[in-house]
Automatic annotation (TrEMBL):
The lineage of its organism: Eukaryota, Fungi, Dikarya, Ascomycota, Pezizomycotina. PANTHER family: CELL WALL PROTEIN CWP1-RELATED, SERIPAUPERIN. Residues 750-816 form the Agd3 C-terminal domain. InterPro entries: Agd3_C, Agd3_CE, CBM87_Agd3, Yeast_SRP1/TIP1_CWP. This is Extracellular serine-rich protein. It comes from the Eukaryota. Signal peptide: none annotated. Residues 384-749 form the Agd3 deacetylase domain. Residues 157-370 form the Agd3 CBM87 domain.
Amino acid sequence: MIALPVWALKVSCYYGFITCDTAPGVWPKNTPTVIAYHPPVSTPSTPGSPVGVGSTTIVTSTLSLTASAPISSVSGTASPSTAAASTFVTFTSSASSSNPTSSSPASGATSSSLVLSSTVSSAPVSTSASVTIPSMSSSAISVSASASPTPLSQAAVAADILVIARDAASANVASSGLNGYGIPFTTLIVPSAGVALPDLNSTAGGNFGGIVVAAEVSYDYGGDKGFQSALTTDQWNQLYAYQLEYGIRMVQYDVYPGPKYGASAISNGCCGDGVEQLVSFTDISDFPTSGLKTGAGVSTTGLWHYPATISNTTSTKKIAAFAPATGFSTESVAAVINDFDGRQQMAFFIGFDTTWSATSNYLQHAWITWITRGLHAGYRRVNLNTQIDDMFLETEIYSPAGSNFRIRAQDLSNIATWTDAINAKMPAGSSYFVEVGHNGNGNIENSSDSSNAGWDACGAAIEYDSPLDTPPEWVKPLGTGTNLWPAVPTTYDWTATCTAMDELLAWWTTESNLNKFGHISHTFTHEEQDNATYSDVFKEISFNQAWLKAVGIDKATKFTSNGIIPPAITGLHNGDALRAWWENGITNCVGDNTRPALLNKENPMWPLFTTAAANNFDGMQINPRWASRIYYNCDTPACTTLEWTTTSQTTGTFQDLLAIEKAETMRHLFGLYHDGYMFHQANLRNIDVDPITINGVSAKYSIMQAWVETQVQEFVRLAEWPIVTLTHQEMSASFLARFNRDKCGYSLSYSTSNRKITAVTLSATGNTCTDPIPVTFPVAPTSTQGFATEQLGADPLTVWVKLAGSPVTFTLSTPVSL
């Protein structure tokens, strides 16, 4: 008797290569009994015969090898001269599927394209080369016990993720989450004409630690072919064989339920206009480090999907469900994990688009933590940085017209108290605070205007006629412009007696109040800097620095000294302004994400650095920052709703506005963007406003508080991740560190023994890097080797590894099963 693996036994019985107690063309539900190790007698097949009965074509692939020894076509066993290679016998069907996005036969086979591997030796094989497929008769094939892809007892595997997609846009969607974590990946673009696979292994071992395939890379080929994958059956077989040999996992999304996924579709898809069908996770036990919550439904609007049922309960497990909806009376299957006799696969029956969909950004964390087993280079962190511009200034309000507002001490006291309340709603390990951008001239103006004594103590604040606006990306010629500041004073010279007359400053200089917030300069007067002179900008920076020092704000525990919030995000194409910043110790600022010119086009996780060509100055770091529909010149829901509906030519309520903000912000947070959020002092008004209701609870919230409450409550409904605020200085350093370490070309590999990961090794180009590289562990290493570690709340452990000329290896305290 020959001991075949169960999956090989089933496929051999199914295709009639051996005689079993199940008929050829019938997929065995259980382990079949072998009657004879030779094909059953059958009549010749005819065109149009059912798949798997008599129409099966048996082929062999001729592969180009990375090894120097040549290899010829084989019939299931390797010749002695080719012992350095793995060769494959591939079983394929001559029929194609009619499913909209499926390329497999519509048979009962759980994995329609299976590979039997011949004898494997230690020398590697490249499975990426072009493939020739000569036809062979069934009598040419001999199925032997050694013909299955043998899992390697020991191996080294690069943790790089192979992303396979139809085009660059699809690849970006598939890889955006990996990029958010900082997990290395390789993209393979597959056009409709097909393409060769990359080398799946090499002399060092496996080249990929996981495979992600978007929409089966399928195209509509028209006619009888319909939708088919641009990968050949032989290429799918190579991927499957690689999975089995190295124990790596595959993820597929935007696929049609069928035998390849152990599921059956219950409709042609959902949903039409106006129909909502929520999707939620039902079981995260196979990816616990995801930190996602079960039963938390999210919208599928705009994402076509295929509600399903599980057809193969032996191989398939439901992990996500679609809720009942119009046309669907019961819950249905949205995503599954398959285990096809050792080949592990996760499949989502829904399309993804992380460029606009909060749901796609949310769902991706399941497959990312599953495919990596929670063990990867990179890390996951959610930063919620809310910056409040214009502190100490007075704002002219959009509506009602003709009114002005300046924040009051009691407004800030309520914000400080609320900060404790909102932190209590966040997951363990969270730390949130509000950061404030100060304009010192507003303090002088208020003190000077408060009374005769104020005028006597202060004299005039800095006053000038505001400059004309320029086009946002206008580049100012160096040395041009007209000074707007008065000739005197030439240095900051206001006294403590003057500044203390403003009760708002008295509140801020109380230490407990001061240290409740983060602090940063927003320049002295808020002069817009696109066409400003070097002289004016130098004073804007230096005067505010002097004022911050004089009043004691620079002593705050959360103070940024090397960055600013530019007034109205101006001056970024003004080389004179940037030089004045730099000479006063300012090396970074925030930008505006609504302006593409201020974003890094190479990687959205990187800051932008100014250049002489684009900005007339080299090296200023511009960190991304999100705008919102909470407008700078509004202090109530009615005001900001009116400005939103008017400027956007839309209709809606304040609750509608918050719903849109929630969807966009969840996309940002679950996309792992660390960009800050822009607000203004008028947005903090709360002591004399009408109550705002958030999720059924009413309170006297400012519109900024209402925004934060909305985001936090939605986020904690979906995930257990800690929410962390950074100071501007820390945020800027984090962006720079991400940029620097990405340039190091780091990678992670893991060592396996007896189908378990026992150790991981971090390396980089030259095995050096200016900044530490994060490595995330689902289980602790036996030693962190003196490197800095971080573990907040329920998040996994991150070790920040400083490479100094050699790779660094960590042995796992508990091996991770493949």
